[in-house]
Design brief:
single chain; mainly beta; two-stranded antiparallel sheet
């Protein structure tokens, strides 16, 4: 049931915080659609991480860029997230300060949101609802986490929490499984 919209982005750069930047564009004509669904490979609530595999090849018009990942616990001096706030076209947000290791209860049921990277406040841009699951890249442009939640949104540029890849890599407890089995089976 998964439908992907690749390259959903503005055809021209727009000044951050301008009226044009805040005006959404249509998905139709501004994206490449892929149907065919996905296969669930891994999900873990404690690390707030899910991994799926596409059931069909990525359309050639997408021309994807494949960036790697970093499963270390090294603190990055900066962070970048490419995301779709409110389901709108692609936005990029930048944090120019070192990321902060954090363990926080993110859900109302009292479950500890195991091992997160915290962005105290974004230096350029922000995230909003709909950005969840977007990848956080370190200074080397490698994936180190996925957006779990936070208070950031336009007009309220507060903290965001990203589930750390290294927590999901080996799993977060007995029987939890891990991403390593899928991304590095050897």
């Amino acid at each position: 049931s998964v439908v992907l919209y690749w390259k959903y982005e503005s055809p021209a750069c727009r000044t951050p915080n301008s009226t044009s930047s805040g005006t959404p564009i249509s998905v139709a004509g501004n994206s490449v659609v892929q149907t065919g669904g996905t296969t669930l490979l891994f999900t873990n609530r404690d690390s707030d991480t899910t991994l799926v595999e596409l059931n069909t090849a990525i359309p050639s018009a997408v021309n994807p860029y494949w960036y790697g990942w970093d499963r270390s616990s090294n603190v990055s001096p900066t962070g970048v997230v490419v995301h779709h706030p409110n389901g709108d076209e692609k936005r990029i947000s930048f944090e120019n300060d070192p990321l902060v290791e954090s363990n926080v209860p993110l859900r109302g049921d009292g479950v500890l949101g195991n091992k997160h990277w915290r962005i105290n406040d974004w230096d350029v841009g922000t995230t909003e609802q709909g950005s969840s699951g977007s990848g956080l890249m370190n200074a080397q442009k490698r994936l180190i986490g996925v957006l779990s939640g936070g208070s950031a949104l336009c007009g309220n540029n507060l903290e965001d929490y990203f589930a750390r890849l290294n927590a999901a890599w080996e799993g977060t407890g007995p029987g939890s499984g891990n991403i390593r089995l899928h991304l590095d089976p050897g």
